[in-house]
Design a protein that fits this description.
alpha+beta; two-stranded antiparallel sheet; two-stranded antiparallel ribbon; 2 helices; 4 strands; flat
Length: 88
């Protein structure tokens, strides 16, 4: 039981770091001194509209995945991992 509780705490901390990091990055995107926090890259896998996985004429099925991460989110994830080590 303790192990599953630890995993949920870790997932919660990482998810909170990602959400808060994205929110703060949007807020600071207009501030010149903090613009470097919003720098990030997108990693994506998109099968595309031209080549659907399943095409039945009236029904087309596509699969896609995109991950946008910025510097602030990476910093907050590292802080979340440090907090997790202290909480655990």
């Amino acid at each position: 039981m303790k192990k599953s509780k630890d995993i949920f705490i870790l997932l919660f901390l990482i998810l909170a770091a990602v959400v808060i990091g994205g929110f703060i990055a949007q807020l600071t995107s207009g501030i010149a001194a903090l613009k470097w926090l919003t720098y990030g890259e997108a990693i994506s896998f998109n099968y595309g509209n031209a080549n659907p996985l399943l095409d039945l004429g009236i029904f087309k099925f596509n699969f896609g995945f995109q991950l946008n991460i910025n510097i602030l989110q990476i910093v907050l994830i590292c802080i979340a991992l440090l907090v997790y080590r202290k909480v655990r």
